[in-house]
Amino acid sequence: MKPTDLEFSHEALDPPPGRPPIHVKWLGTAGFSIEHDGYTLLIDPYVTRASLFDCIRSPLRSDALAIRRHVPVADAIIAGHTHFDHVLDVPGIAQATGATVYGSRSCTTLCQTSGVPSAQVVDVEGHRGVEPFRAEVGPFELRFIPSVHSAFLFGRIPSAGNISDCDQIPLRTTGYRCGAVFGVDIRVAGRRIYHLGSADLLDGHPDRDVDLLLMCVAGWTTTERFCPRVMGSLRPGAILLSHWDDFFRPLDEPARALPAMRMGRLVDSLTAVDPSVQIGTLPIMGSLRL
Ligand SMILES: [Zn+2]
Fold first, then answer.
1. How remote is the CA of residue 37 from the centroid of ligand 1, in Å?
2. Ligand 1: distance of its center to the CA of 35 in Å?
3. Which pLDDT tens digit goes with each residue over 229-252?
């Protein structure tokens, strides 16, 4: 099964008549913009999409032109973890737009070392409490749920550890260490959206019944019982599949799946738990409304 065989229609999730829609746009990889009522969130926006050659050859630099072309002006930027394909562009977008960044200590260090003012960066990891860290951005209510990264590299998490303030910017790909991992629970206009940026999670989530799960595909085959666990923990009504695309290809070329994503098997495993769940993809820069 090809990802394009699964494309959602624009109106797939039935926005109710009479209220401004929530627009969810896929930016490629685990990146999304979510807009409602004049406010915009970005999650894991990665539009530089350095080639494999550039990733191996030299430290990575964010592509300011790609940011200007593809990233909407946002009120907040959320980083679920700090691998390069999630945060390379975060400091540049923050500096270009003034948006507030929410992320781990590793993300905070990266942003501050890159010159983003401290007042513009929120460390969601430093929060100590029973309840998850919460924030409000316009009509959006955010909860940062501790999560885990899939251990897809021979049973290990690639580039584990934190970006530290001793690291030299620009970093090589391996310098973008994972940092603490968060799922992001977003509540807006009576809907719940959950961003799962890596294909693993901690069991026993505080709340289930997510309307739309933005779900990472890469790594799902090496995470034990991923499908029943994600379905049981979040009980999603709909799933938008992400992070299945080859992110070494430029954004203006059609998305092509990474090897071994096994999309057909993934869909079968998810629908085996709940046959009513809607599952789909979007083209890069495609959007849906809910
Ligand atoms: Zn990652």
1. 31
2. 24
3. 999 999 999 999 999 999 999 998
How many angstroms is it from 260 CA to the middle of ligand 1?
17
- The CATH number of whichever domain residue 254 belongs to comes to 3.60.15.10
38 Cα to the center of ligand 1, angstroms: 30
Tokens coding 140: 């959006």
What DSSP string runs through 167-231? SPSSPPGGGS---SEEEEEEEETTEEEEEE-SS---SS-S----SEEEEE-TTGGGSTTHHHHHH
User: What is the model's pLDDT at position 137?
Assistant: 98
Q: Which domain holds residue 148?
A: 3-13+20-289
Q: How far is the CA of 160 from the centre of ligand 1 (A)?
A: 9
Question: Total structural domains in the chain?
Answer: 1
> DSSP 3-state assignment of 154?
coil
**Antiparallel, parallel or unpaired: β 121-123 and 278-280:** unpaired
How far is ligand 1, taken at its centre, from the CA of residue 84, in Å?
A: 8
**pLDDT for position 166:** 77
* Cα dihedral 124→128→129→130 (10° resolution): 80
Q: How far apart are CA 254 and CA 2, in angstroms?
A: 13
Tell me, what's the pLDDT at 106? 97
Q: In the chain, which residues have pLDDT < 50?
A: none
What pTM was computed for the model?
Answer: 0.96
